[in-house]
TrEMBL record:
Keywords tagged on the record: Signal
Top-level taxon of the source organism: Bacteria
Database matches in PANTHER family: ARABINOSE-BINDING PROTEIN-RELATED, DIACETYLCHITOBIOSE BINDING PROTEIN DASA
UniProt signal peptide: 1-27
InterPro entries according to UniProt: Bact_solute-bd_prot1, SBP
Protein known as: Sugar ABC transporter substrate-binding protein
Length: 476
């Protein structure tokens, strides 16, 4: 494994100063250009609430605070760590108390929630064109609502699926071709059927496909597959609700079909994220989902533990080379990947922040989401950076990668589409209500074979018509 030299704090600071200089002169000049505080350099503290984004992200908080202060001696960045489990609860508690942090980590889908609470700050006035140009346009739009820029993205990831290389080849899957050109549902169905292995007694010892559908992943399976089934959003360009389309019924039929084929477990509705990954590592499935690029590294690390024979590997696991794969397309639709864009939002409490403080928040939020900081957490997550400054920054360590997986990730990211910023808040809220009250529970019933695809489709259609009217839904 090739390791690049570790850059000192001083060098990191020099790199950031260089970035700011490239964006319009010296650091002080950049502030006066609308990216940060004024030349008055009043002392100020910016607070941030951040989760363990990558393996070493939180361990670097102290260095990040010092580096920011080295760049801006009049500013103090104070970072509060949070676990993934309590991140949202902590943030909501602080928001409800009227004293949120200046910066917080959120998924882009939560922006409408906090915008409705009127606690987000529009950063457009304090971000220069040069700073905005550092970010890829698709990712940037995920932190916009209407004309407002409520934060900056940290990364763009694609929710894919992943296969065991050995098992894929045994099943006759040309996985390199699939990585670059995708596959239809019929091709996928045949592949996962070929991937099933049964014991002499007829029991299934390996499934073709397993997807986590329980707990926090209860809606993932349907929403991820729907993107490439002609249903990329809940609303079409005319703002009509799309899940009343025949494409939705076709997708539901396919989801049930894969279980009835025996390619997926009958107990799919009870499989959570931990169970599905355990099934992959122990050879109980050929393909698993949902997948992220970082799963390649997780599988690699478990393989190393198996080779070390020190008892630290997952119990009963086998060596498995993880192969990134796109989800199949349904109903003759085009492939549309599910993009996951997380990042940093700017918040305000009961007291309106000064213009100077908002400028300083803009400085800090750009610092956290670009350059060497973004380069390192993206690298640890096996993601391609979404800022030019991060792409041009050195990383502390390089990890071995499957080059075909890298190319597959790039091919999927190239098809990522910008977030929709035209959907009215009230319509979006009503769609989420239908999702929570009808779609998710009905999907669980469908997976458990308690209702048919037609019955689920009819229930969702009835709820949609009740919410949006006959003219507010797709009728094809």
């Amino acid at each position: 494994m090739k390791t690049k030299k570790v850059f000192t704090l001083f060098m990191s600071a020099i790199m950031m100063v260089s970035l700011l200089s490239a964006c319009g002169g010296s650091a002080a000049e950049s502030e006066n250009a609308g990216q940060g505080g004024s030349g008055g350099a009043e002392q100020d503290t910016i607070t941030a609430l951040l989760p363990p984004v990558s393996a070493n992200y939180q361990a670097r908080f102290s260095d990040m605070e010092k580096e920011f202060n080295a760049l801006y001696p009049h500013l103090t960045l104070k970072i509060e760590p949070a676990s993934w489990e309590d991140m949202t609860q902590k943030l909501d508690t602080q928001v409800n108390a009227g004293s949120p942090p200046d910066i917080a980590w959120v998924g882009s889908t939560a922006i409408s929630k906090y915008a409705a609470l009127d606690v987000l700050l529009d950063l457009n006035p304090v971000l220069s064109d040069e700073v905005k140009a550092d970010y890829d346009e698709v990712a940037m739009k995920y932190f916009q609502l209407g004309d407002a820029q409520y934060g900056l993205p940290a990364y763009l990831a694609i929710h894919s699926i992943g296969g065991n290389k050995k098992f894929l080849e045994e099943a006759g899957v040309d996985w390199k071709n699939v990585q670059q050109n995708g596959w239809t549902y019929d091709e996928f169905r045949e592949a996962i059927n070929n991937g099933v292995v049964k014991s002499d007694s007829g029991e299934t010892s390996r499934y073709g496909f397993v997807f986590a559908t329980s707990g926090v992943t209860s809606k993932d399976y349907l929403s991820i597959m729907a993107k490439s089934a002609g249903l990329p959003e809940y609303f079409d360009e005319d703002l009509k609700f799309t899940y009343t389309s025949k494409n939705f019924l076709g997708l539901l039929e396919a989801i049930r079909q894969m279980i009835d084929d025996g390619s997926m477990p009958k107990e799919l509705s009870s499989i959570d994220a931990g169970k599905r990954w355990n099934m992959f590592l122990t050879g109980q499935t050929m393909i698993t989902g949902k997948g992220l690029a970082s799963f390649e590294n997780s599988a690699r690390l478990n393989n190393e533990k198996i080779k070390a024979n020190d008892g630290s590997a997952v119990a009963d696991s086998i060596e498995a080379e993880y192969i990134v794969l796109p989800v199949p397309t349904f109903n003759g639709a085009d492939y549309v990947p599910t993009s996951v864009v997380d990042g940093y939002v700017a918040l305000r409490g009961k007291k309106e922040p000064s213009e100077e403080h908002v400028k300083n928040i803009g400085l800090a939020i750009h610092f956290l989401s670009s350059g060497s900081i973004a380069a390192n957490y993206s690298n640890e997550l096996f993601l391609s950076p979404i800022t030019e400054s991060a792409r041009n920054s050195e990383v502390l360590e390089e990890y071995p990668r499957n080059e075909d997986n890298v190319k597959a990730d790039e091919a999927m990211m190239a098809k990522a589409v910008p977030a929709r910023t035209d959907i009215p808040t009230d319509k979006a809220a009503e769609a989420i209500k239908i999702e929570t009250e009808v779609i998710v529970p009905k999907l669980q019933a469908l997976l458990a074979n308690e209702i048919s695809p037609q019955e689920m489709y009819d229930a969702v259609k009835a709820a949609a018509i009740k919410s949006f009217g006959e003219d507010g839904v797709v009728a094809d």
